[in-house]
Amino acid sequence: MSTFKAPKGTYDLLPPDSAVYLAVREAISAPLRRAGYGYAETPGFENVELFSRGVGESTDIVTKEMYTLTTKGGDELALRPEGTASVLRAALEANLHKAGNLPVKLWYSGSYYRYERPQAGRYRHFSQVGAEAIGAEDPALDAELIILAVDAYRSLGLRNFRLLLNSLGDQECRPVYRAALQEFLRGLDLDEDTRRRIEINPLRVLDDKREAVQKQLTGAPMMRDHLCASCTAYHEQVRELLTAAGVVFEDDTKLVRGLDYYTRTTFEFVHDGLGSQSAVGGGGRYDGLSEMIGGPSLPSVGWALGVDRTVLALRAEGVELALPAATQVYAVPLGEEARRVLFGVVTELRRAGVAADFSYGGRGLKGAMKSANRSRARIALVAGERDLAEGVIQLKDLGSGEQRAVPAGEITAAVRAALG
Ligand code: AMP
């Protein structure tokens, strides 16, 4: 134990659990890579205004949860609380949208930071894999992204997740709805904070988790009943494409999500085994975001899936991922000459693509074999002075316990054959 601990609301990823996180990131990104999404990586911090303008001045993320800092040079920066604004900023800066091949499809994976009240499944540093399809307005693109997320969860073996779907309308129908909702909300018995929210972002009042608020929302006007003809047709197409792909969804007219930039399609994946922090991923269409951060009109859609919560969901369902063995072969040298020979064998095996490890520190047979078993290797290679004098290495199958002597020159081939 050192004097220091991981900061509040954060945790470290270490073996053996860290292998599960890697596998989850890999599983979420695999369907994206197969669908033409290219990898993007942006800095961990950005100009603070990118988020205040992009995510929304009135959102919890911007008002309460951002880690902001002033550099020695006087720049106002923020640790990134989410990925979309950064990725869009990067695509615009590099003029990817001008290369004539829209949509620009990008995926990313990384750390995000929000100063939230920590609890199970909610951290101040967490990890997301995300995807953005920039510069096209096509219901098939919304459907594509949702299907890719569903396929990612399914490939991990998750079953108890649900997809909630809604449309938030566009610049034509949303303002009309917003005004109707405001009028309804102003007549309710609400606290000061919530009253202020009615004026700034009334849709988010629908998202209030408090029962006293939810009770009063019965009979509130719903976006669904105010969608314009083009938004209705668009949403209907997304729904049809999802259904044709065998994706089950639930219409959730109250789904607004905590970021201001969403338009039309919005969705969230929830998992029923996670308690109050049940959202494992979410996203939607953000047709106005590019203009909000100073770019041209580029209708886009994207999502971000939480890696931490996906791991928790796997645990809740008791899913054990089939992870590749970290070590297949463990070498146990007995004596100086054996150290030299087996170290060479381990190097050769690794170069041949076999995961091999070595007993360091000149340990005796008993301790070294314990490490071999703990490493869950399938094979141990043991050599002492007598073996070397005979020009052999002992190949021991750690499953069956069977052991045989193999000529030193044939050991790589013998190991590969034994591993199958
Ligand atoms: P959001 O950007 O808020 O839509 O979040 C997308 C996903 O990231 C959520 O569904 C969660 O799985 C995950 N996520 C967001 N905030 C946190 C947090 N504080 N701790 C852990 N995971 C989070």
TrEMBL record:
<dbReference type="GO" id="GO:0005737">
    <property type="term" value="C:cytoplasm"/>
</dbReference>
<comment type="similarity">
    <text>Belongs to the class-II aminoacyl-tRNA synthetase family.</text>
</comment>
<keyword id="KW-0030">Aminoacyl-tRNA synthetase</keyword>
<feature type="binding site">
    <location>
        <position position="128"/>
    </location>
    <ligand>
        <name>L-histidine</name>
    </ligand>
</feature>
<feature type="binding site">
    <location>
        <position position="257"/>
    </location>
    <ligand>
        <name>L-histidine</name>
    </ligand>
</feature>
<dbReference type="InterPro" id="IPR033656">
    <property type="entry name" value="HisRS_anticodon"/>
</dbReference>
<dbReference type="Pfam" id="PF03129">
    <property type="entry name" value="HGTP_anticodon"/>
</dbReference>
<protein>
    <recommendedName>
        <fullName>Histidine--tRNA ligase</fullName>
        <ecNumber>6.1.1.21</ecNumber>
    </recommendedName>
</protein>
<dbReference type="GO" id="GO:0004821">
    <property type="term" value="F:histidine-tRNA ligase activity"/>
</dbReference>
<dbReference type="InterPro" id="IPR015807">
    <property type="entry name" value="His-tRNA-ligase"/>
</dbReference>
<dbReference type="InterPro" id="IPR041715">
    <property type="entry name" value="HisRS-like_core"/>
</dbReference>
<feature type="domain" description="Aminoacyl-transfer RNA synthetases class-II family profile">
    <location>
        <begin position="1"/>
        <end position="324"/>
    </location>
</feature>
<feature type="binding site">
    <location>
        <begin position="82"/>
        <end position="84"/>
    </location>
    <ligand>
        <name>L-histidine</name>
    </ligand>
</feature>
<dbReference type="InterPro" id="IPR004154">
    <property type="entry name" value="Anticodon-bd"/>
</dbReference>
<feature type="binding site">
    <location>
        <begin position="261"/>
        <end position="262"/>
    </location>
    <ligand>
        <name>L-histidine</name>
    </ligand>
</feature>
<feature type="binding site">
    <location>
        <position position="114"/>
    </location>
    <ligand>
        <name>L-histidine</name>
    </ligand>
</feature>
<dbReference type="InterPro" id="IPR006195">
    <property type="entry name" value="aa-tRNA-synth_II"/>
</dbReference>
<dbReference type="InterPro" id="IPR036621">
    <property type="entry name" value="Anticodon-bd_dom_sf"/>
</dbReference>
<comment type="subunit">
    <text>Homodimer.</text>
</comment>
<dbReference type="GO" id="GO:0005524">
    <property type="term" value="F:ATP binding"/>
</dbReference>
<dbReference type="Pfam" id="PF13393">
    <property type="entry name" value="tRNA-synt_His"/>
</dbReference>
<keyword id="KW-0547">Nucleotide-binding</keyword>
<dbReference type="GO" id="GO:0006427">
    <property type="term" value="P:histidyl-tRNA aminoacylation"/>
</dbReference>
<keyword id="KW-0963">Cytoplasm</keyword>
<dbReference type="InterPro" id="IPR004516">
    <property type="entry name" value="HisRS/HisZ"/>
</dbReference>
<keyword id="KW-0436">Ligase</keyword>
<dbReference type="InterPro" id="IPR045864">
    <property type="entry name" value="aa-tRNA-synth_II/BPL/LPL"/>
</dbReference>
<keyword id="KW-0067">ATP-binding</keyword>
<keyword id="KW-0648">Protein biosynthesis</keyword>
<feature type="binding site">
    <location>
        <position position="132"/>
    </location>
    <ligand>
        <name>L-histidine</name>
    </ligand>
</feature>
